[in-house]
Each structure stands twice: as C-alpha cells, then as structure tokens.
Specification:
Blueprint (H helix, E strand, L loop, with lengths): L2 H28 L6 H22 L9 H23 L4 H8 L2 H12 L6 H18 L9 H27 L3 H22 L9 H28 L2 H4 L2 H17 L5 H19 L8
Helix pairs in contact: 1-9, 1-11, 2-3, 2-8, 2-9, 3-4, 3-7, 3-8, 4-7, 4-11, 5-7, 6-12
Amino acid sequence: MSRSSFDRAGLALMLSTILVWAGSWIAMKLIVSYIGPFDFVALRYVAGSLVLFALVIATRRPLAMPPWKLTLLIGLTQTAGFQGFVQTALVTGGVGKVSLMAYTMPFWVILFAWWLLRERPTATHGLGIGLAAVGLICFVEPWNGLGDIRPVVLGLGSGLSWGVGTVLSKRMFERHAPDVMTFTAWQMLFGGLVMVPVALLVPQMPAQWGWQLWTGMTYIVLIATAAGWLLWLQVVRRVPASIAGLSSLGVPVVAMLLAWALLSERPTPAELGGMALILAGIWVVSRAAPAPRAD
C-alpha cells in the first residue's frame, strides 16, 4: 500500500469516527424522552463494557484488571461523571450547546495536568484558554440575561469530569502500561456499575421500551461505544497524533450541524461566534508543544 493511500485510509477512518460520535449526540438527545439519564448511563456502559470484554476474549488480550483504585477513579470521572452530566444536560439543553461544552475537555486537562502531573502550561496553552474563555462568554450571552444556564453548567461539568479522567488515564499508562482495550473495558464497567445504585435511588422517569429507545440504545452501545472506539484505535495507529487530536474539533461541529438539520436547533450569531472562538482555542491547544514538567 502506498503512503498516499495509507494516509487517505487513515483520514477516512478519522472522518468516519467523527461522524459516528457526532451521531451519538443526536441519538442521546432523541431518547431523553424515553429513559432517565442515570438509567441510560448505567445501561450504556455496563452493556458497552460487556461488548468490549467479548472483544478482549476474542482477540486473546489479557483479561486481568489494571490497578483497581485508579481504574475505579477513572470510571467515576471519565465514564460515570462525564456521561451523567451530559445526559442530564441534554434533558433541557440543545445538542450543539452541550456537546461544545463537553469538548472543553482539553482545557481542563491542561489545568489538572498542571496540578496533578506538574506539567506547567506554556504561553500557547494560555492563549488557547483565553480564546475559549471569550468564546464561552459569547456562547452564554450574559448581556441578554443568563436564562436557563443549567445545560451550560452541566456541559462544563462533563468536560471537567472527562478532563480529570484523561489526566488519571495518563498516569495509569505512565505507571502501569495496561492493555488499552482491557483497561477501557474495566473502567467502563466500573463507571456503569457505579451508576446502578444512583439509577435505583434517584427519582427519574421510567424507561419506555419502544422502538425509539431500542433503536437509540443499539446505535449508542454497538456503534458509538464499541465500533466507535475500535475505529478510534485504527485512527491512532494510522494518523499522526497532531492530526488525530484535531478530531476533538470535528465532533461538536458535526453534531451541531446534524442538530441544525435534523432537530431544527438553529444557533444564534453570538453562539456561532462563541463556537468559533472555543474551537479556535481547542486548535491552539492541540498544536501547542507538550507542557514541561515542573521540578
């Protein structure tokens, strides 16, 4: 295979991954009327982890659990916290707004890596965070009154949780180097199981198992969670990290465009400007040199 065809295949896989993950935001929004947010999180990740465990066994990867305390913390943040905030935000918030707030994750990674890993941010990181901060102000439009700011706050909470989980995952790989698929399956299982008692104890609407919910859950569990993750592994293998990292720009953009086309969620000019600034901040951060470790 020539280098050009190899690169084209990698970019095609990256575009497929972006489309699959952006589509999951539409699916999650469509099923909020049929299942409570905590039931959804528990079901998505317990079922998704079982699919991954089946793949681990089929590919004869090691099945042993990585260090359980760190795996549990990652499951609590990267899986349960992230998805719990997202699905609760989608009850009243639009796909574009919530997905963009969730994808503020790279900025939270910078801050928590500074605190936990002693990775000092550079001036370029500061520029990216500044652009995103201005974009967030434009997105919220405080000059028009805050209105229903709950989806924005919950969306930011999801990005924060994802950021903490990402930093903890980096620590896991640096210290213990687990098999990626096995580690993902275990932390996903922990995240799903943690949400089971929450789903049982917190009042929420009962699940309505019609074709809408079955279709949405099938897409989310099998395609967005399992197949999307496998697609991403292929992207990481084939595409340079600097390019693969830019997929974080593509998912909220495509999700917003799909929501505009399919759900009639038309963003305001201020929201479009804010989105552009936040995405510019993410791009600047993704292109920055790695943060140096503090002594």
